[in-house]
């Protein structure tokens, strides 16, 4: 039987984790933050058992990814490590139809839904929302408030200029972007490759909403060239 002290085992797991994702850390402070994070997450594991059972070790490491460790790696080493992966987060509040605030790794972060744009109902539009702005915001709030969601990153930037996470969002196995598009409560917009994984699929949902004059598409001329045309609103 292999006998490994728990603290030493945790350190070895951290080193193994870093090796598995193919990363090297030039910044000692960032490495320490990551090590501390994983140490806390793995503190209650039976390290000896993990080292004797590779499959169990792999499963444990995958669970840490699901808790958001890959997001930390993405922030430290670039976006390659997070593209296509999903992390779980708790919705703290809903800002509007396409923006929410989540708790992720103990920190509150704003999330902007990738590839879609809902009509505005806040800021300069708070007293006079854009058509379907309130309906879109209310729908997102009803769908997501207090829920646990999955966030998926694409291959490009993981944040925008406002430091909001850029994600595809899922709740109860459903794509939030698709739910908005099929109801005509958002349009496909802000498509910046390589953050365009689901553009074609989203446009298919939008096309159906257009054909049946659903939501924002029920107002002639309101949606033009992937933008909202407020000049048609009287």
Helices and strands, with pairings:
Elements: H1 6-20, H2 28-42, H3 47-52, H4 54-77, E1 86-96, E2 99-104, E3 107-113, E4 116-117, H5 133-144, E5 148-152, E6 165-171, E7 174-175, H6 176-182, E8 187-188, H7 199-211, E9 223-224, E10 227-228
Parallel strand pairs: 3-6
Antiparallel strand pairs: 1-2, 1-5, 2-3, 4-8, 5-6, 6-7, 9-10
Helix pairs in contact: 1-2, 2-4, 6-7
Explain what you see:
The strands form 3 sheets. A 5-stranded mixed barrel has the order 1-2-3-6-5. The protein has 234 residues and is α+β, with helices and mostly antiparallel strands. The protein has helices at residues 6-20, 28-42, 47-52, 54-77, 133-144, 176-182, 199-211, and strands at residues 86-96, 99-104, 107-113, 116-117, 148-152, 165-171, 174-175, 187-188, 223-224, 227-228. The model is unreliable at 1-27, 67-73 and 76-81 (pLDDT under 50).
**What is the averaged pLDDT score?**
80
Q: What is the N-to-C succession of helices and strands? A: HHHHEEEEHEEEHEHEE
- The SS-based structural class is alpha+beta
Q: Looking across the biggest beta sheet, what order are the strands in?
A: 1-2-3-6-5
Describe the largest sheet. 5 strands, mixed, barrel
Tell me the name of the CATH class of the largest domain: Mainly Beta
Q: What is the name of the CATH architecture of the largest domain?
A: Beta Barrel
CATH topology of the largest domain: OB fold (Dihydrolipoamide Acetyltransferase, E2P)
**DSSP helix count?**
7
Distance between the termini: 78 Å
């Amino acid at each position: 039987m292999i006998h490994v002290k728990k603290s030493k085992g945790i350190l070895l797991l951290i080193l193994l984790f870093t090796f598995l994702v193919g990363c090297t850390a030039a910044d000692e402070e960032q490495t320490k933050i990551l090590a501390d994070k994983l140490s806390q997450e793995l503190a209650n594991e039976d390290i000896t058992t993990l080292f004797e059972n590779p499959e169990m070790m792999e499963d444990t490491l995958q669970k840490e990814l699901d808790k958001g460790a890959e997001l930390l790696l993405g922030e430290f080493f670039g976006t390659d490590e997070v593209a296509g992966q999903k992390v779980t987060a708790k919705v703290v509040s809903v800002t509007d139809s396409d923006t929410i605030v989540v708790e992720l790794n103990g920190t509150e972060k704003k999330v902007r839904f990738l590839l879609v744009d809902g009509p505005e109902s806040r800021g300069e539009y708070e007293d006079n929302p854009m058509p379907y702005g309130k309906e879109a915001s209310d729908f997102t709030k009803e769908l997501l408030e207090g829920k646990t969601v999955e966030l998926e990153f694409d291959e490009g930037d993981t944040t925008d200029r406002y430091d909001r996470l850029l994600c595809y969002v899922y709740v109860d196995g459903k794509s939030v972007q698709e739910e908005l598009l099929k109801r005509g409560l958002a349009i496909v917009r802000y498509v910046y490759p390589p953050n365009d994984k689901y553009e074609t699929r989203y446009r298919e949902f939008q096309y159906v909403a257009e054909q049946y004059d659903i939501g924002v598409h029920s107002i002639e001329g309101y949606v033009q060239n992937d933008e909202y045309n407020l000049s048609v609103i009287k």
